[in-house]
């Protein structure tokens, strides 16, 4: 906070007569940062709730059944509902729970996209989009532009989602202990599903918001790092996360260099991708802690076979 205030004073002094304009934009940026911090806290709380309630559809259904209208309905048609549940069977009930849970996650993706877009839009970053674009355009060379195009093409959203899906399935197949709930699914064999939901939300809102396909790219790179890093020694995990950060920065710079996206679009997409992955990271960490409360510090060495964190995979009951 001291650094931010000091920087604002220096910028205001250098701006001279334009101090009012600078102070207005700094005020907007400060408000955007505060809102973003509140959003991060909310995301952590939501992730912890998911970790403690890994089957949100079932939890919400039970709470809805406790409401007076639903209690009346159950008392009146309880036998019919029981016969219907027996007709459906546990497997189809499991599938219905997963579909409903994924639908809730899709709504949450829309809400997160709206929130991140509002934060970046309120920050005033879009004012400098043209300035940054003109500065890069004046220094763009054919060789670097071709290299940037190659980077953007290789790290495309579709290819990265496929890579995440293959990695998740391979890692899940190596540890064949199954458990059926939404959090375990999206944290192991179905780790690509949140990326698909994010892509749907991005495509639906791209025309109105600052969102781009780079949100899916960022989330995919973060998900890959998360899938591998939680199963290896912490030093290697730090190196892997460093590589992931470098990858996100490299693809972001490449998109900005070739002019595919503006600075505000890329900031919005990176924030959304990182926060979206953080939800499931927090949910999974909470889930593992709940299942293994005696382990205050998780084993990151990879030398302990049969750890709960490695054995929780989804399945139909």
Explain what you see.
This protein has 317 residues and is mainly alpha-helical. The protein has one domain. It is 78% helix and 0% strand. It has helices at 2-15, 19-52, 56-65, 68-123, 129-138, 142-154, 157-174, 182-187, 193-205, 214-229, 234-258, 263-291, 308-311. α2 (19-52) runs parallel beside α12, α3 (56-65) packs across α4 and α7 runs parallel beside α10. It is globular and about 75 Å long. The N and C termini lie far apart (51 Å). The model is unreliable at 13-17 and 295-317 (pLDDT under 50).
Offer a few descriptive terms:
disordered C terminus; 78% helix; Phosphatidic acid phosphatase type 2/haloperoxidase domain-containing protein; mainly alpha
Task: Chart the SSEs and their pairings.
Layout: H1 2-15, H2 19-52, H3 56-65, H4 68-123, H5 129-138, H6 142-154, H7 157-174, H8 182-187, H9 193-205, H10 214-229, H11 234-258, H12 263-291, H13 308-311
Helix pairs in contact: 1-2, 2-4, 2-12, 3-4, 4-9, 4-12, 6-11, 7-10, 9-10, 10-11, 10-12
Organism: Phytohabitans flavus
Keywords: Membrane, Transmembrane, Transmembrane helix
Protein name: Phosphatidic acid phosphatase type 2/haloperoxidase domain-containing protein
């Amino acid at each position: 906070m001291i650094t931010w205030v000091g920087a604002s004073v220096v910028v205001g002094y250098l701006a001279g007569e334009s101090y009012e304009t600078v102070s207005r934009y700094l005020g907007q940026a400060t408000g955007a940062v505060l809102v973003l911090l509140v959003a991060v806290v909310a995301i952590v709380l939501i992730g912890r709730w998911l970790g403690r309630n890994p089957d949100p559809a079932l939890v919400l259904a039970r709470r809805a059944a406790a409401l007076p209208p639903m209690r009346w309905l159950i008392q009146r048609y309880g036998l019919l509902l029981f016969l219907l549940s027996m007709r459906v069977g546990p497997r189809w009930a499991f599938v219905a729970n997963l579909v409903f849970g994924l639908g809730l996650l899709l709504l949450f993706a829309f809400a997160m996209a709206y929130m991140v877009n509002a934060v970046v839009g309120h920050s005033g970053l879009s004012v400098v989009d043209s300035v940054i674009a003109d500065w890069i355009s004046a220094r763009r060379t054919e060789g670097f532009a071709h290299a940037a195009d190659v980077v953007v093409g290789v790290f495309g959203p579709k290819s990265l989602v496929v890579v995440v899906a293959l990695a998740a399935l391979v890692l899940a197949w190596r540890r064949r202990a199954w458990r059926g709930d939404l959090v375990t699914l999206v944290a192991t064999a179905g780790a690509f599903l949140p990326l698909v939901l994010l892509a749907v939300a991005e495509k639906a809102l791209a025309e109105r918001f600052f969102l781009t396909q780079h949100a899916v790219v960022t989330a995919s790179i973060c998900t890959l790092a998360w899938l591998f890093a939680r199963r290896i020694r912490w030093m290697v995990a730090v190196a892997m996360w460093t590589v992931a950060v470098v990858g996100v920065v490299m693809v972001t710079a490449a998109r900005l260099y070739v002019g595919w996206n503006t600075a505000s679009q890329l900031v919005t997409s990176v924030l959304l991708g990182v926060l979206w992955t953080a939800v499931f990271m927090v949910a999974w960490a909470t889930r593992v802690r709940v299942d293994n409360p005696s382990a205050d510090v998780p084993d990151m060495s990879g030398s302990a076979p049969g750890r709960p964190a490695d054995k929780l995979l989804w399945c139909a009951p």
